[in-house]
Design goal:
Pfam families: DUF1191. Keywords: Membrane, Signal, Transmembrane, Transmembrane helix. By secondary structure, this protein is α+β, with helices and mostly antiparallel strands. The protein is built from 8 helices and 17 strands. It has helices at about 1-20, 30-45, 80-85, 120, 220-225, 230-280, 295-300, 305-315, and strands spanning about 25, 55-60, 70-75, 85-90, 90-95, 100, 105-115, 125-130, 135-140, 155, 160-165, 175-180, 185-190, 200, 205-210, 285-290, 290-295. The strands form 4 sheets. Strands 1, 2, 3, 7, 8, 9, 12, 13 and 15 form a 9-stranded antiparallel β-sheet that branches. Strands 4-5-11-14 form a 4-stranded antiparallel β-sheet, with no helix packed on it. The longest helix has about 50 residues, at about 230-280. It binds 2-acetamido-2-deoxy-beta-D-glucopyranose (4 copies). One 2-acetamido-2-deoxy-beta-D-glucopyranose (NAG) binds next to loops.
Length: about 325
């Protein structure tokens, strides 16, 4: 339980940090080929179902010219996903509380393991992969003959979806190891792992573990990554600005709540002290603020410090 709580705290922290860590855009042609692969993999994964049993994973077959890529699919009732999650589906651990948008009765989670094709479909200059790129995408499971389906939008609401990379190539890189998350729209997010080989997400997409390579090529940055014009750069910049603003607001709100808490706590102790003074036998004019009986002079809230001093004098 404790571990879970700390994971959640870490995850929330990470969400805050997300604002500061890098996010970049994929070049358009790379995105197109990756999305085309997603579409084919959906098709091949669905073909693995003949008369599928709900909640059991089925492995699909890929054409021989893509040997090395693995695909699998599991069909679930939407309600079961929301209420029970999936303890373990390959490297993914899907918690309670994952909901899809739009709502469907049954959905199919398609799993990808891009194996030695990872860097072909998800090139990431400045980083090397320590694990294969893994994908988890959700589709409407009503018609298993369907191809060219559009993904559903899924979101983990309470706890994050966890991805545990078991065959992590042992590396001496330690803190240089990063989680990478590719969303379906071509954005790349680099993030710190929860620990070692554990990454967290609230959304679907592709995930892996990378390490910054000491090659001369620069890390992906909005200016370095984007090929193909001002529009992309502008939207990246805009996204960054929005992220910073939202992050700032969240931080401000948290700070505000903290300050308010401290102020209330201080006030409560102050009032309690005054109450004690009053109860210790001095005859003072009393008034009530909320549940507290306080000396009238203090009730006006004008100059509490002076009042305090007066009371201390009265005490002695
Ligand atoms: C694999 O072969 C198919 C034709 O069978 C072709 O359309 C596709 O582009 C090939 N893919 C790769 C990655 O070579
Ligand atoms: C991955 O490995 C398979 C053999 O296991 C090979 O046929 C394929 O060409 C490799 N893919 C790449 C991109 O190197
Ligand atoms: C899917 O295709 C199979 C034959 O390939 C057919 O028997 C079945 O009725 C089809 N199902 C739907 C929902 O179209
Ligand atoms: C990169 O780092 C490795 C050790 O981690 C070192 O052996 C290698 O020479 C470095 N390469 C460059 C280009 O700096």
């Amino acid at each position: 339980m404790r571990v879970k709580t700390s994971l959640i705290v870490l995850f929330s922290l990470q969400c805050l940090l997300f604002v500061q860590l890098s996010s970049a855009e994929f070049p358009h042609d790379v995105l197109v080929s990756a999305r085309l692969l997603d579409s084919h993999l959906q098709d091949w994964a669905f073909k693995a179902f003949s008369s599928p049993r709900t909640g059991l994973p089925y492995d699909g077959e890929v054409p021989t010219n893509l040997t090395g890529i693995k695909v699998s699919a599991i069909r679930l009732r939407s309600g079961s996903l929301r209420e029970r999650g999936v303890q373990s589906y390959k490297e993914f651990e899907i918690p309670i509380g994952v909901i899809e948008e739009p709502y469907v009765e049954r959905l199919v989670l398609v799993y990808h393991n891009l194996g030695n094709w990872s860097h072909k479909f998800y090139p990431l200059p400045g980083y090397s992969y320590l694990a294969p790129v893994l994908g988890l995408l959700a589709y409407d499971g009503t018609n298993l003959n369907a191809s060219g389906l559009h993904e559903l939008d899924i979101r983990a609401s309470d706890e994050p979806i966890l991805i545990k990379f078991p065959d992590l190539k042992h590396s001496p890189f330690g803190p240089l190891v990063k989680c990478v998350y590719f969303d379906l729209h071509g954005s790349v997010h680099i993030d710190i792992p929860l620990h070692g080989n554990l990454c967290a997400t609230s959304q679907q997409g592709h995930f892996s573990i990378v390490v910054e390579s000491n090659a001369s090529s620069p890390a992906p940055s909005p200016s370095g990554e984007v090929q193909g014009g001002g529009k992309n750069t502008k939207s990246t910049l805009l996204r960054k600005v929005v992220l910073y603003v939202v992050g700032g607001i969240v931080l401000l709100a948290v700070f505000g709540v903290l300050v308010d808490r401290i102020r209330r706590a201080l006030k409560r102790t102050e009032i309690r002290e005054l109450e004690n003074v009053a109860e210790s036998g001095e005859n003072l004019d009393m008034t009530t603020i909320g549940d507290y009986k306080v000396p009238l002079a203090f009730g006006t809230r004008t100059r509490p410090m002076i009042n305090m001093i007066t009371f201390l004098r009265l005490l002695s």
